[in-house]
Design brief:
The structure is a single chain. By secondary structure, the protein is mainly beta. β6 and β7 form a beta hairpin. It has four domains: 31 residues, no CATH class; 76 residues, Immunoglobulin-like, CATH 2.60.40; 74 residues, Immunoglobulin-like (Sandwich), CATH 2.60.40.1080; 234 residues, Immunoglobulins (Immunoglobulin-like). The strands form nine sheets. Strands 3, 4, 6, 7 and 8 form a five-stranded antiparallel β-sheet that branches. The radius of gyration is 40 Å and the shape is elongated.
Amino acid sequence: MKPTYSKYLTLSAFFLTYLFISCGSNEPIGGSAGNVDEVNPEVTSIVLSSNSNTVNLNDTITLNLVTNTGEQVTSSAEFYLDGVSISSNSYNFSSEGTYVFTAIYDGLTSNELTFTITENNSNELTSITLSSNLSSYYINDVATFTVTGNDGIDYTDEASITLADGTILTGNTYDTTTQGTFTFTATYNSFVSNETLINVLPSPVSFQKNVLIEDYTGTWCGWCPRVTYGIKLVEEETENAVPVAIHVGDAMEVAGVGPLVSYFNPSGGYPFANLNRTTSWNYPEPNNIGQVINFTNGGADLGISINPTLTGNTMDIQIEVKFGIDYSLAELALVVYVLEDDLIYDQSNYTSGYSYGSADPLVNFEHDYVFRASLTDLFGDPIPQSSTTADNIFVQNITTSVPSNVSDSDNLSVVAIVVNSSGNGTPGSSNSAINVRSAYFGETQDLQEL
């Protein structure tokens, strides 16, 4: 240990010198304190640690030594195992037993580090397992494989993955170009994995994707013509949009529509338009036509056809839904609306800059796609899960009278919507539309397979 009296001599000498200088200058007291030599704290102890607290048979540890002042002194220390000097600060546990490490630096002895190694805590590699990210794929999907050792280490990059015919994969992926069942194994050093089977299915049928626009509106709503005009612009760009005008608080309101309105328009603000039931059409709607059209891009996993006929006052409607993929684990429902065009009522109008002009009201305004009745529950009637398997066609036949609130049956159309009915209208459920279709009476439709 260093003698402590030297500190006092140094400090006393400094104080006298400093006092002399300060008396003959204008420097404030403390102005030259930066010239004092710092006194390093004493090293009184050393702490030994390792890079890992958990070690197994055949693991290597690295020892580290630090003084109580925080100085790293590993390279200047001597290390001991069970009291015997070892040549470096790293050690490999090649056999079972109890190991006690210490270190000495500048006459100081460290704490002890003790490790007990048994075969039970050995993570020696003895086997590898091959797994795939899925068990079934469609043609042109990519299967991805992983090779994992019993020691928990990922050996995918170092392993070879082989198809049953002897083909060795490049990397850990396989392009599924042919239908069938395929077997794979992996090898790493002398280890061979389990066999992993994948099933490659035919490419699923895809269908035209249509978008549902539900416009919550009323003749009293002066801003509602803005959405009506937005729908007009959408129809100029695509034939794959299905508008529905749900009137509230005017002569076209349908009794019993309240639960639908309160569920999808809980704020009660108007106008309000939803896309596929659960996505709000962004304001101002005429400036966001692209948002609607984007819903029609790509293919849908189910297709819908409607073939309605009208005989006198009787509506016969056949709806078919074909499933391109297996939906049997989902809860799907079918919603069927009856709409009417060419209903003439004055419309309040607070808008300007659109094709309707700024007149208020818009006298004898033509209202189209007006909701007149739901032939199912507003949130949909369940489709049996046994009917929603891949390539199956679910058929719904409806025979009923023309709704009593219809003004002219020649202007009627039918809308069919397949929704994810999880929760069936209860808060937190999805109720999003998977696909939608509309048809006028007398029209013949196919399923829009792509």
